[in-house]
């Protein structure tokens, strides 16, 4: 479970650059990142809304197993 400081930093980054905030949370080759990148290209505000949803409400530990874990996540 991420700390409050990590979540606040990811939210601030997601407001400035939505795909980067999602990348920090879910990895850069995830479905969430691709959706956020597409929404940000189509419109900045939808990208921010989806990034905040992906950071706050989607739990990455629920569906990440050992093979799909991002490189920076602790083992």
Automatic annotation (TrEMBL):
N-terminal signal peptide: 1-23
InterPro entries: PMP3
Keyword vocabulary terms for this entry: Membrane, Signal, Transmembrane, Transmembrane helix
PROSITE patterns, per the entry: UPF0057
Primary localization class, coarse: membrane
GO-annotated cellular components: membrane
Subcellular location(s) of the protein: Membrane
Pfam family, one: Pmp3
Transmembrane region(s): 35-58
Mitochondrion is among the record's keywords: no
Family as reported in the entry's similarity comment: Belongs to the UPF0057 (PMP3) family.
Database matches in PANTHER family: HYDROPHOBIC PROTEIN RCI2 LOW TEMPERATURE AND SALT RESPONSIVE PROTEIN LTI6 -RELATED, LOW TEMPERATURE AND SALT RESPONSIVE PROTEIN FAMILY
Protein name: Uncharacterized protein
Species classification: Eukaryota, Viridiplantae, Streptophyta, Embryophyta, Tracheophyta
């Amino acid at each position: 479970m991420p700390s409050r400081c990590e979540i606040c930093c990811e939210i601030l980054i997601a407001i400035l650059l939505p795909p980067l905030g999602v990348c920090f949370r879910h990895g850069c080759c995830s479905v969430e990142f691709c959706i956020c990148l597409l929404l940000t290209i189509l419109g900045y505000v939808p990208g921010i809304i989806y990034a905040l949803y992906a950071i706050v409400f989607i739990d990455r530990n629920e569906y990440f197993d050992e093979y799909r874990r991002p490189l920076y996540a602790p083992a």
